[in-house]
Write a structure and sequence with these properties.
InterPro entries: C-type_lectin-like, C-type_lectin-like/link_sf, CTDL_fold. This protein is α+β, with helices and mostly antiparallel strands. Helix content is 20%, strand content 39%. The strands form three sheets. Strands 2, 3, 4, 5, 6, 7, 10 and 11 form an eight-stranded mixed beta sheet that branches. It has a three-stranded antiparallel beta sheet with strand order 1-12-13, with no helix packed on it. The chain is elongated and about 90 Å long.
């Protein structure tokens, strides 16, 4: 073996001996406690009854905002989660409203975008009932009977609330250690 080959093998050996991480990356989506991962959102139900303004403030105090519904899959996931986590909840505030809007257009306070997906409850919308949107379900025999759908309410009415946060996305990596290994999560921006 020539001295060039020997040095090459020595460098390769030292490099491999210093290897402490394995390139095994798995994407992980998590929510901060006490929020729950529901579809592509982190949600938290509050049993407190607040008006829309207080509800918005309550969510913001937790680094969140009132829930918004952008599509049918989000609505289905919210319905399933609410029936499992709070089966007797009749209604709860969303971030939807038409405050200051004279054209009866609704916007999601949480995103600032016009609400395009509006799954209305029976006999809704009734703009004269108020400016804020809640998800509402009928109760039959003391149990939530239907899917939650949007209903217009006066913003000063009291209701329970659901707050939402954006999930944290991170990459999970396995790090080799002498005689063991550790799994760590690295937050992605």
């Amino acid at each position: 073996m020539s001295w060039k080959q020997f040095i090459g093998f020595a460098i390769l050996g030292l490099t491999l001996a210093q290897l402490h991480s394995v390139n095994s990356q798995a994407a992980v989506t998590t929510c901060k406690s006490p929020f729950a991962l529901v579809s592509d959102k982190c949600l938290l139900w509050h049993s407190k009854f607040l008006n829309w303004y207080e509800a918005d403030r309550q969510c913001r105090s937790q680094g969140a905002q009132l829930v918004s519904v952008q599509n049918v899959s989000q609505l289905q996931a919210i319905n399933k989660w609410m029936k499992a986590s709070s089966p007797n909840t009749v209604e709860f505030w969303t971030s939807g409203n038409k405050l200051g809007n004279t054209q009866n257009l609704y916007f999601w306070e949480s995103t600032g975008q016009q609400a395009k997906y509006l799954p209305w409850a029976k006999s809704q919308p009734k703009p004269k009932d108020g400016d804020c949107l809640m998800l509402y379900s009928e109760i039959k025999n003391g149990v939530v009977a239907n899917e939650y759908l949007l209903s217009v309410r006066n913003c000063t009415a009291w209701s329970s609330i659901v707050c939402e946060q954006v999930p944290t996305k991170s990459v999970q990596r396995t790090c080799l250690m002498p005689n063991s290994f550790e799994t760590v999560q690295v937050q992605q921006n």
